[in-house]
Amino acid sequence: ASNTLLAMTTTTPARRPVVGLLLAVAGVAALLAILFVFIAPSLGGAWLGIIADAALFLAFLFMAIGRGAGVFIRVLYAIGAVGWAILLIDSFVSLGTVYTIGVVLAIVGTLLSGIVGIIRHVYSRSADLVYLLAAIVVSIILFNQLHGFLTGTLAIIVSVLYGLLLLVAGIFIALRK
């Protein structure tokens, strides 16, 4: 097998080190954004949010074009990719109502791919479980963007979980042999 980027992402679910790396990058960016809020608020964490959204968009795009997963879950990954792309674009240009559609698509694609992934055993058991947990927490964070129900300490805890679970899911997926 070739070591090209496309070959690493489109062969089988077990050979997706790039997808795992992208999920881990999104997790690290999210964790650093939280850290920046407390340590250096003047620097802002918006650019870290852009990095996280870009990494998630690329991860979902690569999972959608991968041949190792079934068609149904690849459609879910594609829905997630479109949602994350909209969120990424909204970081640069306000999209108004389209942003809301992007959040909904990202929630649907992320959460349902986590549920279907654990049912169909896309990765290892531990990677599937951590990905599902990450998908749930990511969906809570996204839903919070529409209806700000997380505040104070709870918002910080869920945000840290968001970053940690993406990081761990990325590591488990990348290390899957």
Descriptive overview:
- By secondary structure, the chain is mostly helical.
- The chain has seven helices and no strands.
- It has helices at 5-10, 17-39, 46-65, 71-90, 97-120, 125-146, 152-175.
- It is globular, with a radius of gyration of 15 Å.
- It starts with a helix and ends with a helix.
- The model is unreliable at 6-11 (pLDDT under 50).
Q: Would you list the SSEs in sequence order as H and E?
A: HHHHHHH
Which bin fits the share of residues in helices?
over 70%
Strand element count: 0
Largest sheet: none
Approximate strand percentage: under 5%
Secondary structure tally, helices: 7
Overall average pLDDT: 87
Cα-based radius of gyration, to the nearest Å: 15 Å
Unreliable runs, pLDDT <50, ≥5 residues? 6-11
Structural class of the helix and strand makeup? Answer: mainly alpha
Q: Tell me, briefly, the overall form.
A: globular
First-residue to last-residue Cα separation: 14 Å
Protein traits:
about 180 residues; mainly alpha; globular
In brief:
Helix content is 79%, strand content 0%.
Topology overview:
Blueprint: H1 5-10, H2 17-39, H3 46-65, H4 71-90, H5 97-120, H6 125-146, H7 152-175
